[in-house]
Amino acid sequence: MLTRRNFMTRAAGATAAAGLAAACLGSGPAFASPLGQSAQAGLRTFIDGALVDQAAVVEWEKRRFSVVAARLRQDYVGVLTGELDSLLTRLENAVDDVPAARVALAQARLSIGEAGIRELLAAELVASETAARAGIAASDGRWQYAITEIASDRGTAQGFLDWFDRARLTDDRPVWTDACPDHYLIATLPDGRQEVIEVTGGAMLPSQFFVDYTDVTGVMVPADPAYPLTAAGVASLADGFVIGGVRHQFRDEPGGGFRAQLKVAFPAALPGLYIAEHRWHLACEFGNWITAYLRTVQ
Predict the structure, then answer these.
(1) Do 155 and 271 fall into the same domain?
(2) CA 280 vs CA 52, 146, 225, 273: distances in Å
(3) Cβ distance 46 to 148 under 8 Å?
(4) Please, are residues 209 and 236 in contact by the beta-carbon 8 Å criterion?
(5) Of 61, 85, 110, which residue is a domain's last?
(6) 144-160 burial string, b = 16+ CB within 10 Å, else e?
(7) What 3-state DSSP class applies to 232?
(8) Using alpha carbons only, what angle is made at residue 268 by residues 250 and 205, rounded to the nearest 5 degrees?
(9) Residue 170 buriedness (CB in 10 A; 0-12 / 13-18 / 19+)
């Protein structure tokens, strides 16, 4: 049933998505990126142990903008087409308009509002929760890991972790949400848990989960003793059902700067493409977060 509320939500989504699409195509206003330049200077990213071009990370980010724009206007044919382009075709894209697209997407989220985003994604979140429970059941307690490493030639491991924790504790939503197009909502709850609504890895649907960074006892991601600083937590559904976990570790480098080892646990039954794509997700979000942190370093 089309109510006034969901009509307004859809109208806001369509308008916001149109603005985002214009920015992606280079015809929108020339905004400055709140998270840094289109390619993160001074960073080196390693996926599956191999050094990748930073421009490739930004190109991955750009491909995700078209998928998000389609979802915000409820164009599910567009979502599917965008997913196929992003996951399989690997189309080459110019990156000059990425800063504008980042800001346009941030404005789109604000235009729709938190309640509107939840309403737009409600049916997909129900479906993804069902899929998550099935994936856990099929995995029989086994896990696989998406691992990405990022090295910065400036800053310190403790400095970044302090910045990261401060953004979480103060519920700095633009910092959290704007770091990747696939972030629809990231919020710190009164009990300290972080609520995340995002598309993870190669998923076709957004999912909702909660991460408790204050309790690492059940984290299923193995620790690496070469990285002394850690941000870790178990990811669960709203009822506490565990679906994964994170263990992000950091160390200073002998020649200056620091290195991040980013690990996320997924059910072992998920296809390998899902894990492969989440490595790029990690490269995108943490590349933008580290770039934002480095702007505070003298």
Answers:
(1) yes
(2) 10, 9, 24, 11
(3) yes
(4) yes
(5) 110
(6) ebbbbbbbbebbbbebb
(7) strand
(8) 85
(9) exposed
> Are residues 226 and 260 in contact, defined by beta-carbon separation less than 8 angstroms?
no
Report how far apart, in Å, the C-alpha atoms of 285 and of each of 81, 82, 198, 290, 291 are: 23, 20, 12, 9, 10
- Which burial class, exposed, middle or buried, applies to 111 when counting CB atoms under 10 A from its CB (0-12, 13-18, 19+)? middle
Nearest residue to 42 (alpha-carbon basis) of 255, 274, 268, 224: 255
Determine contact, residues 252/156, Cβ cutoff 8 Å. Answer: yes
> pTM for the whole thing?
0.85
Instruction: Tell me, yes or no, whether 194 and 285 share the same domain.
Output: yes
Q: Is the pLDDT of residue 30 over 50?
A: no
pLDDT band at 66 (very low <50, low <70, confident <90, very high): confident
The two most distant CA atoms of the chain are separated, in Å, by 62
- C-alpha distances (whole Å) from 284 to each of 61, 82, 117, 135, 269 are 6, 18, 22, 25, 25
Strand ranges for the chain from DSSP E: 43-47, 50-52, 143-152, 183-188, 194-198, 207-212, 229-236, 242-252, 258-267
pLDDT in tens, 263-286: 999 999 999 999 999 999 999 999
The secondary element (H helix, E strand) that includes residue 103 is: helix 98-139
Of the residues 72, 88, 110, the one at which a domain ends: 110
Residue 74 and residue 166 in one domain: no
**What's the total number of domains in the chain?**
2
